[in-house]
From TrEMBL:
It comes from the Bacteria. This is Glycosyltransferase. Pfam families: Glycos_transf_2. Residues 24-170 form the Glycosyltransferase 2-like domain.
Length: 336
């Protein structure tokens, strides 16, 4: 079985006739034991009970701790545990999460993220208000490896609503995080699971949903997305895989748009991605002084889009890289 599916994996409908809860909180986990307890606790503090909420950790053969023991200790019998037979990779683990879910609403809560009090009740109410929505999102906060607040996401609207022109807005740039998204199981059954790439697969998924369904929105900061060096995002930046994957995702999303809009939107998406990539190159360099990663990212940016602002920002960054008196010290500390 391919670790990265080239077509959306099918999600089988539930036909056994047994009771189905309203919610399935599925927690994919791989080597995130230092954060997993916080993720589980953030759900348990707003537990709706077994009749309304399934809670399960799906372990992709973690090697950093005994995840089953951790789940038993934190969950005290309330949280189910399932372990893959072999390490299958993030996309196949998400697929397993969805196939094992039984609820009408599925929340894929990564083992290193958290939800804030009121998340599940607020999403329940937004689906009641907009039953035609296939998915619902909220605003979120960014936290660091210690769990401290760093900054907030943008607000997409000032009031609870169905997001207007959402497919076109998603085609311009990534605008969501897993932790802030809940999707109806019937949507996954119709459209399939995540595929195509290891990084940016969620951007494609949310656009695929937006093509077929409305997305409801809650303008409250009810979720917390953690940024840390062991994340898929960070590893993709170190290898440069992020650029290759985003190029594939961008092309896939363009195919969801009307033919007449694709070229114009592709140019806009490339411009936005170049600026976004440059912004994400600045932060890691100032944190780790890794010139090799920064050079690779800069070369990629220049191959995607060039304008005066990008040239100015790159020039300033290169000046820092060439003149920083501590660069040799940091270089020794950063693993290759």
């Amino acid at each position: 079985m391919e670790r990265i599916p080239q077509t959306p994996p099918q999600i089988a409908p539930i036909t056994d006739g047994l009771h189905r809860p309203l919610w399935s909180v599925m927690i994919p986990a791989y080597n995130c034991s230092q954060y997993l307890a916080e993720a589980i606790q953030s759900v348990l503090q707003q537990d709706m009970g077994t009749y309304l909420m399934q809670i399960e950790v799906i372990d992709d053969c973690s090697t950093d701790a005994n995840i089953e023991d951790l789940v038993k200790k934190i969950g005290k019998g309330r949280v189910d545990y399932y372990k893959q037979k072999t390490n299958v990779g993030s996309l196949r683990n998400f697929e397993t999460c969805i196939n094992r879910s039984r609820g009408a609403y599925i929340h894929l809560l990564h083992g290193d993220d958290r939800v804030k009090q009121g998340y599940y009740e607020s999403v329940t109410q937004i689906f009641k208000k907009f039953p035609q929505a296939g998915a619902a999102s909220c605003a979120w906060e960014y936290i660091n490896s210690e769990g401290a607040f760093t900054h907030r996401s943008r607000l997409e609207a000032g009031y609870p609503c169905l997001l207007e022109n959402w497919l076109f807005k998603l085609a311009e740039r990534p605008r969501l995080q897993y932790v802030a998204m809940t999707v109806k199981r019937e949507v996954y059954e119709k459209l399939g699971s995540f595929y195509l790439v290891h990084y940016g697969e969620d951007w494609e998924m949310w656009a695929r949903i937006a093509k077929e369904y409305e997305t409801a929105y809650i303008p409250e900061f009810l979720a917390e997305y953690r940024e840390h060096k062991n994340s898929i995002t960070w590893h993709s930046y170190q290898t440069g895989q992020n650029v290759k994957d985003i190029a594939k995702v961008t092309s896939a999303i363009m195919n969801y748009l009307p033919q007449k809009d694709r070229r114009r939107m592709h140019r806009k998406a490339k411009k936005n991605f170049a600026h976004w990539l440059l912004e994400d190159t600045y932060g890691p360099w100032f944190s780790h002084r890794n010139n090799k990663i920064a050079y690779n990212q800069i070369k990629t940016i220049l191959g995607i889009h060039i304008d005066r602002h990008i040239i100015s920002r790159i020039s300033r960054l290169l000046l820092h890289m060439w003149t920083d008196p501590y660069r040799s010290i940091f270089k020794k500390k950063v693993p290759k």
